[in-house]
Design brief:
mainly alpha; disordered N terminus; membrane; globular; 77% helix
Amino acid sequence: METTLRRAPAGGHRASAPARRITGLAAGLVALVAMILASFLIGSQPIAPDDIGAGLSAYLGLDSGRDVAPDVVNIAGLRLVRTLLGLLVGAGLGAAGALIQAITRNPVAEPGVLGINAGASFAVALAISLGGVGSPGGQVAFAAVGALAATGIVLLVGHGTGSTADPARLTLVGVAFGAILSGVVKALELLDPAGFTAMLAWESGSFEQRDMGVVAACAPVVIAGLVAACGLSGRLNALALGDDLATALGANLVLVRAAAIVTIAALAGGAAAMAGPIMFVGLMVPHIVRWFTGPDYRWIIAYGIVAGPVLMLAADVVARVAVWPGEMPVGITTSFIGAPVLIWLVRRAKAVAL
């Protein structure tokens, strides 16, 4: 009887874990809906909720039954674009950060730290400099290729001669590689300031001066990456146990890592093409959601797809009103939030289990 009483709480605890995860995910969805509404309603230019609805109807070519001022239509359209960008960029970076931390087993890995954003920026700069590529479709293609190349180079050098990646080596290689590429981009900008005027706003990490063409060109890449990330989530659990144990469980390490690298390139490259190099989101989101999900990557990625947009939309709303009547690039807002989080993670005695 005594043994039964001691075991009962453990069994009940295990049974309640899925319920807690589902409850947490539902709370995240509620927060996401709230931030979507805030993204439509809050901005540097005040506008009534009824006008937002009528303006969206007019922008989308629907009949709202009332005359709407052109300024209201423009504001509603811009906020629709920024909301969609926040959803796609946040989900892409949240999932990409989880994938990078899984395949490297590095708790501070993210697209910016590993030089992936710099690779995307370099590819876009090279396309503008040599080919005059200015269309969103061309930029997202080059950004994805640049992100893929940067990911492969950093992982190849970071692995060295061993079978597993050393976290310190990967971080150092990523920071060094990113610094080199950033220097080259700055040199190209200095050589052709007029040609790179449009890239300056993109490079700061901003949702300003974007339109539905950017969303339409980049959304398929990011959505395909999110589907692939969900498909890989179960295999990442085996990978997190270590190469030897993962192989014993039947995981094909080469195939899983290759698929993860391509997926990371699609997610980080698509996000960079839409908004430029946004830092720290891919670092913060996986760590935050692990407090609720534990080390199960099926739940980490599901939570990340929800929590990433919540963070990005919140940062964008703050960016709109922080320096009113002007606006701050959303990349600066996420850096203000992410830098203290990175310092806190480094100072922790024990990182959250990967």
